[in-house]
TrEMBL record:
InterPro entries, sorted: DNA/RNA_pol_sf, Rev_trsase/Diguanyl_cyclase, RT_dom, RT_RNaseH_2, Viral_Replic_Matur_Polypro
Name of the featured protein: Polyprotein
SUPFAM superfamilies to which the protein is assigned, alphabetical: DNA/RNA polymerases
Gene3D superfamilies with a match to the protein in the record: 3.30.70.270, HIV Type 1 Reverse Transcriptase, subunit A, domain 1
A UniProt-annotated Pfam family: RVT_1
Chain segments annotated as transmembrane: none
Source organism (scientific name): Cajanus cajan
Domain Reverse transcriptase: 1-175
Upper classification of the organism: Eukaryota, Viridiplantae, Streptophyta, Embryophyta, Tracheophyta
Length: 393
């Protein structure tokens, strides 16, 4: 049976295919995708995983065998999936790879199947993570999960099943006993980049990897700034500053510290600002012990670099709150900083009308419930080290 929707297909034989001893068939569905309506369905954000896994201690992971092929295609629509190779034309009876709607359709289907378990399950297309607070509840969860599997005929890769683990790798992160950190292969990817004369595409890829793990790396803005300059319309020539930035990023990314998964302890935001950079550290205090839950830093805009020190400190607080908004909005938290003038901005008592900039800041900060605690600079070393450029003391 022939079809007017036929798309070209070809074989791929890259290194992974040669190792398997099998060629991989790829269909170019660009012509068909042009006519398909978008079917958007949200995928879980990796940034929300620590929130979902709060207090979880036992994990199980499953990989769906054959991926999209577990979903069938309506017989009346199969002609649209047609593809051709020399001397032959075929149509798919299952959902093929390459359709722009395939990931969302598959995510939607698996989410519907596991709907009763979603409080203790994360689905990312063909990867499923089950999590529980203890072994007893995890056994019940696994039993319910297997019932759904048998009911709907879901197939898993037996080689990739991991059951009742206290430590698990999922979506590039390692989760273990209330902490998480990037998997080692992410740092290994950075090592594959050259240290000099990176192309624009290489810089974008390099910064993209760093962006995925930036929460784990203090003072990251200070290191990425020289590379970001190279992406401007009129970049400077590559120099020792850029080479040193690549070298230092590779070094500090090799062993990023684990972060604590946020619990119900006291929430603290420590901030600091220098002439060009701002820094923030999100901390949870539990029974007098402080645990780091995230790092943030950035470079001030050109206009902001000319602001008064107090305004820069206020921007550091604002940027830190924006970064950790999900964890701070609706909660009371404490802002710790070594600048004593910031609270005066929030409580303006001068007889003269306040500046518009102050009014805007007061209005913005009024959305959040927090108190400000002044701490000596020596107790604010980490954000301070975050924000100071290398040529500053």
């Amino acid at each position: 049976m022939t079809s007017n929707w036929v798309c070209p297909a070809f074989y791929v034989e890259k290194r992974s295919e040669r190792l398997r001893g099998k060629k991989r068939l790829v269909v170019d569905y660009k012509p068909l995708n042009h006519f398909l309506k978008d079917d958007k369905f949200p995928l879980p954000k990796t940034s929300t995983l620590p929130i979902l896994l709060k207090e979880s201690k036992i994990f199980s992971k499953f990989d769906l065998k054959f991926g999209f092929w577990q979903l069938g295609v309506d017989p009346s629509e199969r002609h649209k999936t047609a593809f051709c190779i020399p001397n032959a034309q075929y149509q798919w009876t299952v959902l093929p790879f390459g359709l722009k709607v395939a990931p969302s359709l598959f995510q939607k289907a698996i989410t519907k199947i596991l709907e009763p378990l979603l409080d203790n399950a994360i689905i990312y297309i063909d990867d499923i993570l089950l999590f529980s607070k203890d072994m007893e509840s995890h056994k019940k969860l696994l039993s319910q999960f297997l019932e759904r599997e048998n009911l709907y005929g879901i197939m898993f890769s037996e080689k990739k099943i991991q059951l009742a683990q206290q430590e698990i790798y999922f979506l590039g992160m390692k989760f273990s006993q209330g902490t998480y950190q990037p998997q080692p292969h992410i740092a290994e990817e950075l090592l594959n980049f050259p240290e000099e004369n990176l192309s624009v595409k290489q810089i974008q890829q390099f910064l993209g990897i760093i962006n995925y793990i930036r929460d784990f790396i203090p003072k990251i803005a200070r290191y990425t700034s020289p590379l970001s300059k190279m992406l401007k319309k009129y970049p400077p020539p590559w120099g020792s500053e850029q080479t040193k930035a690549v070298q230092e990023i590779k070094k500090i990314a090799q062993n990023p510290p684990a972060l604590k998964i946020l619990g119900d302890g006291k929430r603290i935001l420590q901030t600091d600002a220098s002439d060009h950079y701002w820094g923030a550290v999100f901390i949870e205090e539990v029974q007098g012990r402080k645990f780091y839950c995230g790092h943030a830093s950035g470079q001030f805009k050109e206009a902001e670099k000319h602001y008064h020190t107090t305004y820069k400190e206020a921007l550091a607080v604002k940027n830190g709150i924006k970064k950790f908004d999900f964890h701070l909005r609706g909660y009371h938290f404490e802002v710790q900083m070594d600048n004593s003038s910031f609270p005066k901005i929030l409580d303006f008592k001068s007889k003269l009308p306040p500046e518009p900039q102050i009014l805007r800041l007061k209005d913005w900060f009024s959305r959040y419930d927090f108190t400000v605690k002044h701490i000596k600079g020596k107790h604010n070393l980490i954000p301070d080290f975050l924000s100071r450029p290398q040529n500053q003391s």
